Amino acid sequence: MPYDPVAEEAHRAALSVQMHQLADTLPEALDALRWSADTTYASDRYNPRIRLRREDGAEIGIGEHRLSKGRLTLSGWLPDNTAYYERHGLSGGQITVSRKKKAWQIAHDIRERLIPDLDTAMAEVHRRQLTHAQDAAAVQATAALLLTVDNVHGNEPTAEDRRRGADTRRELRWGREPYGAPSARARISSYPQTNVTIKCENLTPEQARAVLAALQSTQRATAPAQT
User: Fold this and answer.
1) What domain of life (predicted)?
2) Which of 139, 136, 76 lies closest to 111, judged by CA?
């Protein structure tokens, strides 16, 4: 079918009107106290669309189906501030509905077919956030314990580390210059549980024996009693 710019312009105008109408009616049909509408792109010349935003940050994007002008695509989205490691592999769900449906019918479809998937994804995000916070706290506590030893030093996690979820790992060092002097590197990780890997370099035989003796001593102290 040949492209008709006049017909296409009329179609986009009608779609824009529908987006504004849905923005006005869907929040109340769902729950006006929890949902609001963002109409920033409702009048977009090429792709009219809206967002519904819930009080917890979850969103539903609504726009025209890319292969069918008679249908709308509704996509569940996790909050914009959700970190990659919190959202990786998750889907907020997606459904399509006929443009002929009334707002209350679309709201029903959202409640029955889309929100369950969105809520499941949100629950998993919250679980990951809690687990990550617990892991980060355990790593920080371990780092604080090691930093009580003289000459142990290391940088605190940065804001960027926390944003990327890299605050569940720390690296500390013992020893400084000159090059070739005895030194050690302690890497703290939360996976699969809080653990420390220590790599020593340029130790004297006496230092190496002291390290191994300390390990053996703590091994005896933590070993289960023999019966």
Assistant:
1) Bacteria
2) 76
Residue 48: cis peptide before it, omega within 30 degrees of 0? no
Per the CB < 8 A criterion, the answer to whether 87 and 78 are in contact is yes
Per-residue pLDDT tens for 142-197? 999 999 999 999 999 999 999 999 999 999 999 877 788 999 999 999 988 999 99
DSSP notation for the chain: ----HHHHHHHHHHHHHHHHHHHHHHHHHHHTTTEEEE-TTTT-SS--EEEEEETTS-EEEEEEETTEEEEEEEEEE--TT--HHHHTT----EEEEETTS-HHHHHHHIIIIIHHHHHHHHHHHHHHHHHHHHHHHHHHHHHHHHTTSTTEE-PPPPHHHHHHTGGGEEEEEE--SSTTS-EEEEEEE-SSSSEEEEEEES--HHHHHHHHHHHHHHHHHHSPPP-
- Chain-centroid distance of CA 6 in Å reads 44
| Contact between residue 76 and residue 57 where contact means Cβ atoms under 8 Å apart | no
Q: Which of 83-87, 122-126, 160-164 has the highest average model confidence (pLDDT)? A: 122-126
